## 1
Amino acid sequence: MRKILLSVCCAPDSTHSINALREAGFEPVLFLYNPNIHPYNEYLKRIFEMKKTAAAFGAEAVCPDDWGAKEWFGFVEEFKHEKEGGKRCSACFALRMEKSALAAKKLGIGLFTTTLTISPHKDAKLINSLGAEAAAGHGVEYLATDFKKKDGFKKSVALSKAHGIYRQNYCGCSYSLLERRAGKPIKI
Ligand code: SF4
């Protein structure tokens, strides 16, 4: 099967995404780049769950040595007052797609995609467009997906429950955590 680098935004979202890619004839290598997850103890917790999921699904996982939060804050700084779903999230997706394209090139895989499209609250069209743009910039390929289709999100909920995988209650960044604490609706 052809390898594909799968940028993983969280463990529960990776479950169905791994299965869907395998059904489509790809073998995913999980890329655990998540500089948008704050605070650090939450980052460590989610990375632990991603590694646990990789092991449970028999998938290879690659995790950068550096958390990368400093670079992430610099990248989204100008959009920090945007609401979830706005320009801050577009910048966040763009950085993650950029790093995934670079990693796909460096690892010699040459193809990548992301679990982000499984979320019912995230714009798959925008994510796929940013992925394709990052791929073109680095001479690799991007596989457009919409993992939420065919009950993909529901399946990921069932799979993560079955495997005892932690599901977070805010998207990841400190801004989304503040929104959560302020009692605003949470989009994951
Ligand atoms: S809410 Fe989620 S997608 Fe938006 S900037 Fe924060 S971590 Fe990134």
Note: The CA atoms of residues 42 and 180 lie 15 Å apart.
## 2
Amino acid sequence: MALSPNERVRLVAFDLDGTLVERTVYVWQTLHERFGSDPARRRRAQADYFAGRIPYAAWFQHDLDMLAERGATRAAMLACFDDMRPATGAHEALRGLRQRGYRLAVISGSLDLLLERHFPGRPFDHVLINRILFHADGRIAGGQATPYDLEGKADGLRELARREGLALEECAFVGDHTNDLSVLRAAGFAVAVNVKDPEVARAAHRVLDAHDLRALLPLFPGPPPCPPR
Ligand SMILES: [Mg+2]
């Protein structure tokens, strides 16, 4: 008997901002607002990226430089992240999925520091995210841009499928916003939570109305048995 899309899944990948973490839509925006970056300068860099005039890594570096200029140290950024929260039921949902035997991943254009702040137990098998580096005194030293944000998120899921020896049909994605559209459309099973845009709901196989990630568990009964070799 043919399996339905959710019954084929072996790996579940998540977006971070707005999906696993609440009280921010995009962490970059929240940080710039907190540290008082010049919004016009920020919008110019964003426009340059979306017009193809600068690569993602240059946009990332530009945002880091702006935050560093405004005094965004490691401690100050962590203080900002303390105002955010893991989504309701996030830890329980991750634990439940793990117990059922799923591989877990994050594919995000957010920051590793935010993930580590709210998910310190490293509950993920794979993390594709921007990395930020600090000097010993906490000042921003630089970073490493993820190649897997926005349109690249779908490539991120393909990369994880390759690493795990899976088909894309065996990989699910859970996200909330338009930067997830490419990967929601590529995933074998796509779930929209905390939806920010109607297009996100249209791209998903399932939409969670409850703002509680434990509502994911009934959608993931456990990965199918491995085929005999
Ligand atoms: Mg998001």
Note: Residues 28-81 form one domain.
